[in-house]
Amino acid sequence: TDSNDLKDEL
Amino acid sequence: MNIFRLAGDMTHLFSVLVLLLKIHTIKSCAGISLKTQELYALVFATRYLDIFTDYISLYNTCMKLIFLGSSFSIVWYIRRHKIVRRSYDKEQDTFRHHFLILPCIILALLINEKFTVKEVMWTFSLYLEAVAILPQLVLLQRTRNIDNLTGQYIFLLGAYRSLYILNWIYRYFTEQHYVHWITWISGLVQTLLYADFFYYYFHSWKNNEKLQLPA
Predict the structure, then answer these.
(1) Model confidence at B210: pLDDT above 90
(2) Which residues cross the membrane (chain B) (predicted)?
């Protein structure tokens, strides 16, 4: 997984 | 998750709770822009499409459900609740918010990381969130007398955006160095829109005065 993918933010 | 991100999410959550508290207990939405609230509901509806397809964490899913549920219920309260809707200042809340949506759609179609439905919708939600506060700020300028809860609501929203920028700076240095121009620039634009409000908010707080914006 892409650790710096901002999709894990709200 | 770093401390800035968590603090940002919490201020965002508190902002929504403050607004719901005002609407639910005082049964008033005076000074609140329905236009901005409708834009936020649209922002969350287009951004959280992945809620059914990608599982990130329980925290992530719960927060998404809270933001979706709260934004739509706030819109419902202002539009439909028989007491709350009476306090809605329709004559003052005149910002043509529909005209913000089309440019955001076009921009999302032109400038995105991947040309897929989900990605374009996600990008659209970022652009729209950047400008969604505008009807609320215009309404504040008009009403001038801002009650404490409305002031706190907008302060918390601005704090949430500022903390997210600190979070991106932190992530940039602690994780692999990817550049996220779309998120960063729209986030920065959004935060800058609060600069003026912050100035008057801190000014009134320092002088222990009631918050008032200049005409």
Answers:
(1) no
(2) 55-78, 99-115, 121-140, 152-170, 182-202
